[in-house]
Design brief:
Elements: E1 15-16, H1 27-43, H2 45-48, H3 51-66, E2 73-76, H4 79-88, E3 95-99, H5 104-111, E4 116-120, H6 126-137, E5 141-145, H7 157-166, E6 171-175, E7 194-198, E8 210-214, H8 243-246, H9 254-270, H10 272-292, H11 298-301, E9 309-312, H12 316-324, E10 327-328, E11 330-332, E12 335-339, H13 346-356
Parallel strand pairs: 1-10, 3-4, 3-5, 5-6, 6-7
Antiparallel strand pairs: 2-8, 7-8, 9-12, 11-12
Helix pairs in contact: 1-9, 3-9, 4-5
């Protein structure tokens, strides 16, 4: 792919292997944000009057990108806000299946409420673990991250479709924060009933924006109580009790949500197919080299599919050495998490290994 250092200036000073923690701000998104603030500065409420049009455009862009009707796209400030709203609308008598040690914003939102909870292990047999627990416990809901935040293990999307086909009454709630933006995803054709994601990571949209997608039948499955003036405002919220309106009770930030639209347009210019090809190529190369240097846990090595997030062996000294060499990554779990997006290159992987060795 082309050199992205002009589009993402951060790449001029760092080897950036930390998209799993925070995506980069592009020149295009930055310029949009400057223009938005300038318009507000000189126009005040005249600018605010355009809010509905801006948010409609964002909703339509998200729906187009993930194949979901715009009237089933809710815009929230982050995943945690939206997911808590979702779980607050679920009857407390329901049983929920979680992964042990899944991302806290998923598990805590469930565990802090009165649901009966059961768990599946995250290891090389992840799909079989889920199937066995579902068969035994018959949960009403399975809530999970599509990609695990610590080690990058990704759940098989075909397995989810098969699971939904076998247990059609069980609702599947997915967190796509560590997934959305890495490859094409057709929500309508997926096994998910709900997909939520913060977009400051792999979508490179900046902070303060997230989305939730709903299948049609979810209108009758959950009853969130959130309500505000904005719950009834906008092209796609025509009636009181609108499901997406329950997720948008107050004024929306057009600066942040507009940034998401610009970020989506950036991805569309490059092509999500080209992005997926680069991400998968880097993930394959990294996994092979990390295996060669004995840097990965057994569960990851045994998986046939994997994301571009890896947790490699190394303690404080190695992490500090990477920082000293301008390699940006994160300490997570018992190792060092590195992650590769489409603006990364094979040279980034080689530099990482050179510094470690």
């Amino acid at each position: 792919m082309k050199n992205f250092k002009k589009q993402y200036p951060t790449l001029n000073q760092y080897t950036y292997l930390n998209t799993a923690a925070s995506g980069l701000l592009s020149e295009a998104v930055f310029e949009y944000r400057q223009e938005q603030d300038l318009d507000f500065l000189i126009s005040g409420s005249v600018f605010k009057d355009q809010q509905g049009k801006i948010l409609t455009g964002v909703r339509e862009a998200v729906g187009r990108f993930f194949n979901c009707a715009p009237n089933r796209v809710a815009l929230t400030p982050n995943f945690s806000y939206g997911f808590n709203t979702l779980m607050e609308g679920v009857e407390k008598s329901k049983k929920v299946l979680l992964f042990k040690n899944d991302y806290p914003s998923v598990n805590w939102a469930v565990e802090s409420r009165e649901f009966e909870v059961c768990y599946a292990d995250i290891d090389e047999n992840l799909e079989n673990n889920v199937a066995e627990v579902v068969e035994k416990e018959r949960p009403d809901i399975f809530a999970f991250s599509l990609v695990q935040w610590i080690n990058g293990i990704i759940i098989d999307l075909e397995f989810l479709k098969e699971l939904k086909s076998k247990y059609p009454e069980m609702l599947l709630f997915g967190d796509g924060t560590q997934y959305c933006g890495t490859e094409e995803f057709d929500f309508e054709a997926s096994g998910l009933d709900v997909l939520g994601a913060s977009t400051y990571k792999w979508m490179n949209a900046g902070y303060g924006n997230a989305f939730f997608l709903f299948k049609d039948h979810m209108e009758d499955k959950i009853l969130p109580r959130s309500l505000g003036f904005n719950s009834l405002q906008g092209k796609y919220k025509p009636h009181e009790g609108s499901l997406i309106g329950k997720f948008e009770p107050g004024h929306q930030d057009t600066l942040n949500f507009g940034s998401l639209k610009v970020a989506i347009e950036e991805v569309e210019k490059i092509g999500i197919d080209k992005i997926a090809e680069q991400v998968q190529s880097l993930a394959s190369e990294a996994k092979s080299l990390f295996e060669e240097h004995d840097l990965l846990e057994e569960a990851v090595l045994k998986r046939k599919i994997h994301s571009s997030i890896f947790n490699i062996k190394g303690g404080d000294a190695v992490f500090q050495k990477l920082k000293n060499n301008q390699i940006v990554c994160s300490q997570r779990g018992e190792g060092i998490r590195v992650s590769f997006h489409y603006f990364n290159t094979s040279e980034d992987i080689k530099k990482l290994l050179k510094v470690i060795k």
